[in-house]
Amino acid sequence: MRWENLALDTGGHERAAGTALFGAHAVVTRTFDTPEFAGVTFHEVRARSLVNRVPGASRMPFEWTVNPYRGCTHACVYCFARKTHSYLDLDTGTGFDSQIVVKVNAPELLRRELGARGWRGEHIAMGTNVDCYQRAEGRYRLMPGILAALRDHANPFSLLTKGTLILRDLELLTQAAQVTDVGLSVSVGFTDPELLRAVEPGTPAPQRRLDVVRTLAGHGLACGVLMAPVIPFLSDDPALLRATVRAIAEAGACSVTPLVLHLRPGAREWFMAWLGREHPHLVRRYERLYADGAYAPKWYQRRITRQVHDLAREYGIGPDGAGTPRRIRPPGPVAPPAPGPTQLSLI
Ligand code: SF4
Questions:
Q1: Is the predicted pLDDT of residue 328 greater than 60, yes or no?
Q2: Which end of the chain is more exposed for a tag (fewer CB within 10 A), N or C?
Q3: How confident is the model at residue 261, as a pLDDT?
Q4: In this predicted model, what pLDDT tens digit does every residue of 183-219 receive, in sequence order?
């Protein structure tokens, strides 16, 4: 790790560490003896700042992000945020899945930054790097304080998640939506259970995520679905696309936005190693499809987009169809990001 461990082992599951990245404040490293956190190590830090300006913001649909965690126990093999763990000299493979940095002072820091004279109340996107409703949130409960700060400052925001824990904060989301623009989006790339276990082993099942959409809609909170990623040759079969879009429609999503898998450095190595183990016959096809870099060819992306949009029309997704009444604004458009420096994970 880039931060320098002082290795003051307390004999239990805690130890203090110094860090170059998070200032002179101590880092406390913990493990918990509960099945849900087996094999997971938490590094609690006091961050020096929270609202982050996105590099190359002109190419992104948002400029400011908040990420209370780094690393994600949802452990998606394709996760685009893996590379960011290397900035801490942490492993981008299993380390990303199991070494979780927790910014324990996130709520107080955000409240202070939102109240700063220079802050102009711009839109803040959450869930753009790692999932803020991953399992750790059940223990650390950072999001209630974050949402309360955004509500109190009537600061517009959007939130993208695969976590069902978001429903714990339903009341705060409702309150925030009454005073500012709130965009909610759940990520469901496919509904096939076997593919889920292989590719997104730490996430709630797609049906449970769609129940989140349903519940939010039932409370008058419009929720879109980011259909991401569509995985070439594994989840792009027309019948699978249809089943997924139909389930999204039945959940009452106000929109569906498809996004084809992209494989930037960090994610690419991990995903291709997995592919070689699980689907070796696909390796050559992937090498050809992604021969030009991190993105599938435009023709492929256009084909998937057209198929999903046609299905969405057929199933009536959107404000004129089966979608819920819009009480709050859906998240900003999440288009395939252009190549370049970005931390967008599109969970
Ligand atoms: S893709 Fe999203 S949910 Fe999956 S591991 Fe990455 S940050 Fe977590």
A1: no
A2: N
A3: 98
A4: 999 999 999 999 999 999 999 999 999 999 999 999 9
| Average pLDDT over the chain, rounded to an integer | 87
C-alpha 31 to ligand 1 mean position (Å)? 21
Quote the Cα angle for 52-87-271, to 5°: 105
Q: Which of 162, 200, 212 to mutate to test the pocket of ligand 1 (most atoms within 8 A of CB)?
A: 162
Per-residue pLDDT tens digits for 124-135 = 999 989 999 999
User: Is the per-residue pLDDT at 233 higher than 70?
Assistant: yes
- What single letter denotes the amino acid at residue 257? T
> pTM of this prediction?
0.87
Q: Is the CB of 79 under 6 A from ligand 1?
A: yes
Residue 162 CA, closest ligand 1 atom number: 3
Position 64 scores a pLDDT of 96
Pocket lining: 90 vs ligand 1, CB cutoff 6 Å = no
Give nearest CA residue, ligand 1 atom 6: 79
Average pLDDT over residues 252-261: 97
State which ligand 1 atom lies nearest to the alpha carbon of 97. Answer: 5
- Residue 238 pLDDT grade (very low, low, confident, very high; cuts 50, 70, 90): very high
Q: Tell me the CA–centroid distance for residue 110 and ligand 1, in Å.
A: 23
